[in-house]
Amino acid sequence: MKYPIVQPFLPELDLYQKQITEIFARNRLTNKGPCEAELVEKLKAYLGVEHILLVANGTMALHIAYQVMGITKAITTPFTFAATLGSLRMQNIATRFSDICPNTFNLDPSKLDSADLEWADALVPVHVFANPCDVEAIDSIAEQYQLKVIYDAAHCFASKYKGESLLKYGDCATLSLHATKLFHTVEGGAVIFKHRSDLEKAQKIINFGQNEQQIPVLIGTNAKMSEMHAAMGLCVFNHIDDILAHRVELFNRYKYRLKGLLNFQHWKSNTSTNGSYFSVLFNSEHELLYVREHLESIGIQTRRYFFPDLNELKLYTEYRDLPCSKSISRTILCLPMYYELRLKDIDNICDNIIVLLNKFREVDGAQTTL
Fold first, then answer.
1. For strand 189-193 and strand 172-176, is the pairing parallel, antiparallel, or unpaired?
2. What is the pLDDT of residue 365?
3. Per-residue pLDDT tens for 120-143?
4. What per-residue string of b and e applies to 80-110 under the rule 16 or more CB within 10 Å gives b?
5. Domains, in order of start, for the chain
6. Is the pTM of the predicted complex or chain greater than 0.70?
7. Cα dist. 14→19, 22, 204, 225 in Å?
8. What is the pLDDT of residue 61?
Protein backbone atom coordinates (compact mmCIF):
# COMPACT_ATOMS: atom_id res chain seq x y z
CA MET A 1 0.00 0.00 0.00
CA LYS A 2 1.63 3.26 -1.14
CA TYR A 3 -0.46 5.43 1.19
CA PRO A 4 -1.92 3.61 4.22
CA ILE A 5 -4.73 5.33 6.06
CA VAL A 6 -2.46 5.85 9.08
CA GLN A 7 1.12 5.21 10.11
CA PRO A 8 2.45 5.48 13.68
CA PHE A 9 5.01 8.17 14.42
CA LEU A 10 8.28 6.61 15.56
CA PRO A 11 10.89 8.66 17.43
CA GLU A 12 14.62 8.07 17.11
CA LEU A 13 15.39 4.47 18.02
CA ASP A 14 18.52 5.36 20.01
CA LEU A 15 16.51 7.69 22.27
CA TYR A 16 13.97 4.99 23.00
CA GLN A 17 16.73 2.45 23.59
CA LYS A 18 18.30 4.86 26.08
CA GLN A 19 15.00 5.04 27.96
CA ILE A 20 14.70 1.25 27.96
CA THR A 21 18.30 0.84 29.18
CA GLU A 22 17.52 3.13 32.12
CA ILE A 23 14.35 1.17 32.88
CA PHE A 24 16.37 -2.06 32.92
CA ALA A 25 18.93 -0.47 35.24
CA ARG A 26 16.19 0.57 37.68
CA ASN A 27 14.43 -2.79 37.30
CA ARG A 28 11.08 -1.06 37.76
CA LEU A 29 8.72 -1.87 34.93
CA THR A 30 5.37 -0.58 36.17
CA ASN A 31 3.47 0.69 39.25
CA LYS A 32 3.96 4.48 39.17
CA GLY A 33 7.50 4.41 37.85
CA PRO A 34 9.57 7.52 37.07
CA CYS A 35 8.78 7.48 33.33
CA GLU A 36 5.06 7.55 34.01
CA ALA A 37 5.48 10.27 36.64
CA GLU A 38 7.56 12.41 34.26
CA LEU A 39 5.06 11.96 31.43
CA VAL A 40 2.16 12.97 33.69
CA GLU A 41 3.90 16.22 34.61
CA LYS A 42 4.79 17.01 31.00
CA LEU A 43 1.21 16.38 29.85
CA LYS A 44 -0.30 18.44 32.65
CA ALA A 45 1.82 21.41 31.63
CA TYR A 46 1.40 20.96 27.87
CA LEU A 47 -2.34 20.30 27.88
CA GLY A 48 -3.12 22.84 30.57
CA VAL A 49 -4.94 20.38 32.85
CA GLU A 50 -4.57 19.58 36.55
CA HIS A 51 -5.87 16.09 37.19
CA ILE A 52 -4.71 13.55 34.60
CA LEU A 53 -4.47 9.79 34.98
CA LEU A 54 -2.54 7.59 32.54
CA VAL A 55 -3.97 4.14 31.87
CA ALA A 56 -3.32 1.08 29.72
CA ASN A 57 -5.47 2.13 26.74
CA GLY A 58 -8.19 4.49 25.61
CA THR A 59 -10.99 1.99 26.10
CA MET A 60 -9.91 1.39 29.68
CA ALA A 61 -9.95 5.17 30.13
CA LEU A 62 -13.67 5.11 29.31
CA HIS A 63 -14.28 2.20 31.70
CA ILE A 64 -12.55 4.07 34.52
CA ALA A 65 -14.41 7.31 33.79
CA TYR A 66 -17.80 5.58 33.88
CA GLN A 67 -16.97 3.77 37.12
CA VAL A 68 -15.66 6.86 38.89
CA MET A 69 -18.75 8.85 37.88
CA GLY A 70 -21.00 6.03 39.10
CA ILE A 71 -23.35 6.22 36.14
CA THR A 72 -26.08 3.68 35.34
CA LYS A 73 -28.02 5.21 32.41
CA ALA A 74 -26.41 7.21 29.62
CA ILE A 75 -27.33 9.05 26.43
CA THR A 76 -24.70 9.04 23.71
CA THR A 77 -24.13 9.26 19.97
CA PRO A 78 -24.32 6.39 17.47
CA PHE A 79 -21.69 8.12 15.32
CA THR A 80 -18.60 6.97 17.18
CA PHE A 81 -16.10 4.14 17.49
CA ALA A 82 -17.27 0.88 19.05
CA ALA A 83 -15.26 1.50 22.24
CA THR A 84 -17.56 4.31 23.39
CA LEU A 85 -20.56 2.00 23.44
CA GLY A 86 -18.84 -1.28 24.19
CA SER A 87 -17.38 0.06 27.41
CA LEU A 88 -20.81 1.32 28.51
CA ARG A 89 -22.54 -1.97 27.85
CA MET A 90 -19.74 -4.06 29.41
CA GLN A 91 -20.48 -2.22 32.64
CA ASN A 92 -24.21 -2.89 32.18
CA ILE A 93 -24.89 0.82 31.78
CA ALA A 94 -28.23 1.23 30.01
CA THR A 95 -27.76 3.32 26.88
CA ARG A 96 -29.94 5.36 24.54
CA PHE A 97 -28.86 7.02 21.31
CA SER A 98 -29.57 10.57 20.20
CA ASP A 99 -28.93 11.96 16.73
CA ILE A 100 -26.02 14.12 15.59
CA CYS A 101 -25.68 17.51 13.95
CA PRO A 102 -25.22 17.01 10.18
CA ASN A 103 -22.62 19.78 10.09
CA THR A 104 -20.37 19.09 13.09
CA PHE A 105 -21.03 15.30 13.30
CA ASN A 106 -21.33 15.70 17.09
CA LEU A 107 -24.24 14.92 19.40
CA ASP A 108 -26.89 17.58 18.72
CA PRO A 109 -28.18 19.09 22.00
CA SER A 110 -31.35 20.31 20.27
CA LYS A 111 -32.30 16.71 19.44
CA LEU A 112 -32.00 15.37 22.98
CA ASP A 113 -35.40 14.03 24.03
CA SER A 114 -36.77 15.33 27.34
CA ALA A 115 -38.00 11.87 28.34
CA ASP A 116 -34.51 10.48 27.76
CA LEU A 117 -32.99 13.30 29.79
CA GLU A 118 -35.35 12.58 32.69
CA TRP A 119 -34.39 8.90 32.45
CA ALA A 120 -30.60 9.29 32.22
CA ASP A 121 -27.97 10.12 34.80
CA ALA A 122 -25.20 10.90 32.30
CA LEU A 123 -24.39 12.28 28.87
CA VAL A 124 -21.49 10.77 26.91
CA PRO A 125 -20.86 13.07 23.94
CA VAL A 126 -17.95 12.56 21.53
CA HIS A 127 -15.78 15.36 20.13
CA VAL A 128 -15.69 13.76 16.67
CA PHE A 129 -12.30 14.17 14.96
CA ALA A 130 -11.43 16.69 17.73
CA ASN A 131 -14.22 19.07 16.69
CA PRO A 132 -15.68 20.47 19.94
CA CYS A 133 -19.23 19.61 20.85
CA ASP A 134 -21.61 22.42 21.78
CA VAL A 135 -20.17 22.35 25.29
CA GLU A 136 -22.17 25.34 26.54
CA ALA A 137 -25.51 23.79 25.56
CA ILE A 138 -24.48 20.42 26.98
CA ASP A 139 -23.39 22.03 30.27
CA SER A 140 -26.73 23.84 30.50
CA ILE A 141 -28.72 20.66 29.87
CA ALA A 142 -26.61 18.69 32.32
CA GLU A 143 -27.19 21.30 35.01
CA GLN A 144 -30.94 21.38 34.36
CA TYR A 145 -31.32 17.59 34.55
CA GLN A 146 -28.51 16.96 37.07
CA LEU A 147 -26.50 14.76 34.71
CA LYS A 148 -22.85 13.81 34.72
CA VAL A 149 -20.98 14.67 31.51
CA ILE A 150 -18.23 12.36 30.29
CA TYR A 151 -16.61 13.45 27.05
CA ASP A 152 -15.08 10.85 24.79
CA ALA A 153 -12.21 13.06 23.64
CA ALA A 154 -10.15 10.26 22.11
CA HIS A 155 -9.09 12.47 19.17
CA CYS A 156 -8.52 15.67 21.14
CA PHE A 157 -4.86 15.78 22.11
CA ALA A 158 -3.84 19.46 22.29
CA SER A 159 -7.27 20.63 21.07
CA LYS A 160 -8.33 24.03 22.35
CA TYR A 161 -11.62 25.89 22.50
CA LYS A 162 -11.66 29.61 23.28
CA GLY A 163 -7.98 29.36 24.14
CA GLU A 164 -8.47 26.66 26.78
CA SER A 165 -7.93 22.93 26.66
CA LEU A 166 -11.01 21.13 25.35
CA LEU A 167 -10.22 18.44 27.92
CA LYS A 168 -11.34 20.74 30.74
CA TYR A 169 -15.02 20.42 29.83
CA GLY A 170 -17.39 17.99 31.51
CA ASP A 171 -16.92 16.10 34.75
CA CYS A 172 -14.17 14.21 32.96
CA ALA A 173 -12.79 13.57 29.50
CA THR A 174 -10.91 10.62 28.06
CA LEU A 175 -8.00 10.48 25.61
CA SER A 176 -6.68 7.67 23.44
CA LEU A 177 -2.89 7.38 23.25
CA HIS A 178 -2.97 4.50 20.79
CA ALA A 179 -0.21 4.17 18.18
CA THR A 180 -2.52 5.56 15.48
CA LYS A 181 -3.03 8.85 17.34
CA LEU A 182 -0.91 11.97 16.77
CA PHE A 183 0.57 11.57 20.27
CA HIS A 184 0.94 8.01 21.48
CA THR A 185 2.44 5.60 23.99
CA VAL A 186 2.02 2.58 21.65
CA GLU A 187 -0.99 1.50 23.71
CA GLY A 188 -2.34 3.92 26.25
CA GLY A 189 -5.05 6.28 27.36
CA ALA A 190 -5.76 9.04 29.83
CA VAL A 191 -8.62 10.39 31.91
CA ILE A 192 -8.77 14.08 32.77
CA PHE A 193 -10.91 14.84 35.82
CA LYS A 194 -12.42 18.12 36.94
CA HIS A 195 -12.06 17.26 40.63
CA ARG A 196 -9.03 15.89 42.48
CA SER A 197 -11.24 13.58 44.56
CA ASP A 198 -12.28 11.77 41.37
CA LEU A 199 -8.64 11.41 40.30
CA GLU A 200 -7.76 9.88 43.67
CA LYS A 201 -10.64 7.42 43.38
CA ALA A 202 -9.53 6.46 39.87
CA GLN A 203 -5.95 5.93 41.04
CA LYS A 204 -7.24 3.25 43.39
CA ILE A 205 -9.51 1.66 40.78
CA ILE A 206 -6.68 1.11 38.27
CA ASN A 207 -4.61 -0.62 40.97
CA PHE A 208 -7.13 -3.34 41.90
CA GLY A 209 -9.08 -0.90 44.09
CA GLN A 210 -6.31 -0.83 46.67
CA ASN A 211 -5.40 2.01 48.99
CA GLU A 212 -1.81 2.95 49.91
CA GLN A 213 -1.72 0.08 52.39
CA GLN A 214 -2.57 -2.31 49.52
CA ILE A 215 -5.96 -3.07 51.01
CA PRO A 216 -8.87 -3.22 48.53
CA VAL A 217 -11.36 -0.47 49.35
CA LEU A 218 -13.07 -0.29 45.94
CA ILE A 219 -13.95 -2.67 43.14
CA GLY A 220 -10.94 -2.29 40.89
CA THR A 221 -8.94 -3.65 38.00
CA ASN A 222 -5.42 -3.48 36.59
CA ALA A 223 -5.29 -0.59 34.13
CA LYS A 224 -1.86 0.87 34.88
CA MET A 225 0.47 2.17 32.17
CA SER A 226 3.83 0.38 32.06
CA GLU A 227 7.19 2.15 32.07
CA MET A 228 7.93 0.93 28.53
CA HIS A 229 4.78 2.60 27.24
CA ALA A 230 5.40 5.80 29.19
CA ALA A 231 8.97 5.87 27.83
CA MET A 232 7.63 5.84 24.27
CA GLY A 233 5.37 8.73 25.22
CA LEU A 234 8.35 10.73 26.49
CA CYS A 235 10.22 10.14 23.23
CA VAL A 236 7.23 11.11 21.07
CA PHE A 237 6.61 14.15 23.27
CA ASN A 238 9.96 15.60 22.19
CA HIS A 239 8.46 16.02 18.69
CA ILE A 240 4.91 17.02 19.54
CA ASP A 241 5.01 20.63 18.32
CA ASP A 242 6.45 19.55 14.97
CA ILE A 243 3.90 16.72 14.66
CA LEU A 244 0.97 19.05 15.31
CA ALA A 245 2.18 21.79 12.97
CA HIS A 246 2.83 19.36 10.14
CA ARG A 247 -0.51 17.59 10.46
CA VAL A 248 -2.37 20.90 10.42
CA GLU A 249 -0.44 21.79 7.25
CA LEU A 250 -1.56 18.51 5.66
CA PHE A 251 -5.15 19.08 6.79
CA ASN A 252 -5.23 22.54 5.24
CA ARG A 253 -3.75 21.26 1.97
CA TYR A 254 -6.47 18.62 1.67
CA LYS A 255 -9.12 21.24 2.30
CA TYR A 256 -7.63 23.65 -0.24
CA ARG A 257 -7.40 21.01 -2.97
CA LEU A 258 -10.84 19.45 -2.46
CA LYS A 259 -12.90 22.54 -1.63
CA GLY A 260 -15.91 22.86 -3.89
CA LEU A 261 -15.77 19.19 -4.90
CA LEU A 262 -16.59 17.50 -1.61
CA ASN A 263 -18.21 18.59 1.64
CA PHE A 264 -16.37 18.90 4.95
CA GLN A 265 -17.12 18.79 8.65
CA HIS A 266 -18.01 22.25 9.96
CA TRP A 267 -15.68 23.30 12.74
CA LYS A 268 -16.97 25.10 15.80
CA SER A 269 -15.92 28.75 15.98
CA ASN A 270 -13.08 29.75 18.34
CA THR A 271 -11.31 26.46 17.77
CA SER A 272 -8.80 24.98 15.37
CA THR A 273 -8.03 21.49 14.14
CA ASN A 274 -5.16 19.41 15.52
CA GLY A 275 -4.96 17.53 12.22
CA SER A 276 -5.94 14.24 13.81
CA TYR A 277 -8.15 13.19 10.86
CA PHE A 278 -9.30 14.50 7.52
CA SER A 279 -12.78 13.41 6.47
CA VAL A 280 -14.83 14.20 3.37
CA LEU A 281 -18.51 13.79 2.54
CA PHE A 282 -19.59 12.49 -0.86
CA ASN A 283 -22.86 13.25 -2.63
CA SER A 284 -23.96 9.63 -2.31
CA GLU A 285 -22.81 6.27 -1.02
CA HIS A 286 -22.57 5.09 -4.63
CA GLU A 287 -20.09 7.88 -5.39
CA LEU A 288 -18.08 7.10 -2.26
CA LEU A 289 -17.80 3.40 -3.09
CA TYR A 290 -16.69 4.14 -6.65
CA VAL A 291 -13.92 6.50 -5.53
CA ARG A 292 -12.84 4.29 -2.63
CA GLU A 293 -12.56 1.15 -4.77
CA HIS A 294 -10.44 2.89 -7.39
CA LEU A 295 -8.20 4.56 -4.80
CA GLU A 296 -7.54 1.19 -3.16
CA SER A 297 -6.59 -0.28 -6.54
CA ILE A 298 -3.77 2.27 -6.90
CA GLY A 299 -2.49 1.95 -3.34
CA ILE A 300 -4.39 4.74 -1.55
CA GLN A 301 -6.09 3.37 1.55
CA THR A 302 -9.15 5.10 2.98
CA ARG A 303 -11.50 4.34 5.86
CA ARG A 304 -15.24 4.63 6.32
CA TYR A 305 -15.01 6.15 9.76
CA PHE A 306 -17.55 5.62 11.29
CA PHE A 307 -19.53 3.07 9.29
CA PRO A 308 -21.99 1.70 9.98
CA ASP A 309 -23.27 3.93 12.73
CA LEU A 310 -23.75 1.90 15.91
CA ASN A 311 -27.51 2.41 15.87
CA GLU A 312 -27.80 0.34 12.68
CA LEU A 313 -25.93 -2.60 14.21
CA LYS A 314 -28.73 -3.10 16.77
CA LEU A 315 -26.07 -4.66 18.99
CA TYR A 316 -25.86 -2.16 21.83
CA THR A 317 -29.35 -0.79 22.38
CA GLU A 318 -32.77 -0.47 20.76
CA TYR A 319 -32.88 0.83 17.19
CA ARG A 320 -34.03 4.41 16.68
CA ASP A 321 -34.72 6.55 13.64
CA LEU A 322 -31.63 8.76 13.55
CA PRO A 323 -31.45 10.10 9.98
CA CYS A 324 -28.44 12.42 10.32
CA SER A 325 -26.14 9.79 11.78
CA LYS A 326 -27.30 7.26 9.20
CA SER A 327 -26.71 9.65 6.30
CA ILE A 328 -23.29 10.86 7.44
CA SER A 329 -22.04 7.35 8.17
CA ARG A 330 -22.89 6.24 4.63
CA THR A 331 -21.23 9.14 2.82
CA ILE A 332 -18.14 9.89 4.94
CA LEU A 333 -14.61 8.80 4.11
CA CYS A 334 -11.36 9.50 5.95
CA LEU A 335 -8.23 10.07 3.88
CA PRO A 336 -4.61 9.18 4.74
CA MET A 337 -3.22 11.34 7.54
CA TYR A 338 0.12 10.78 9.26
CA TYR A 339 3.39 12.58 9.91
CA GLU A 340 5.44 10.98 7.13
CA LEU A 341 3.14 12.37 4.43
CA ARG A 342 4.37 15.44 2.57
CA LEU A 343 2.43 18.08 0.66
CA LYS A 344 3.35 16.43 -2.63
CA ASP A 345 1.72 13.22 -1.33
CA ILE A 346 -1.47 15.08 -0.47
CA ASP A 347 -1.44 16.60 -3.95
CA ASN A 348 -1.03 13.15 -5.48
CA ILE A 349 -3.92 11.74 -3.46
CA CYS A 350 -6.13 14.73 -4.31
CA ASP A 351 -5.23 14.59 -8.01
CA ASN A 352 -6.50 11.01 -8.11
CA ILE A 353 -9.67 11.85 -6.18
CA ILE A 354 -10.45 14.76 -8.52
CA VAL A 355 -10.01 12.60 -11.63
CA LEU A 356 -12.25 9.89 -10.18
CA LEU A 357 -14.93 12.37 -9.09
CA ASN A 358 -15.04 14.01 -12.50
CA LYS A 359 -15.27 10.64 -14.22
CA PHE A 360 -18.03 9.39 -11.93
CA ARG A 361 -20.07 12.58 -12.11
CA GLU A 362 -19.76 12.78 -15.88
CA VAL A 363 -21.12 9.25 -16.27
CA ASP A 364 -23.68 9.66 -13.48
CA GLY A 365 -24.89 12.95 -14.95
CA ALA A 366 -25.24 11.40 -18.40
CA GLN A 367 -27.26 8.50 -16.99
CA THR A 368 -29.49 10.90 -15.05
CA THR A 369 -30.42 12.82 -18.21
CA LEU A 370 -31.28 9.68 -20.20
1. antiparallel
2. 63
3. 999 999 999 999 999 999 999 999
4. bbebbbbbbeeeebebbbbbbbbbbbbbbbe
5. 13-98+107-237 (3.40.640.10), 240-369 (3.90.1150.10)
6. yes
7. 9, 12, 35, 22
8. 99
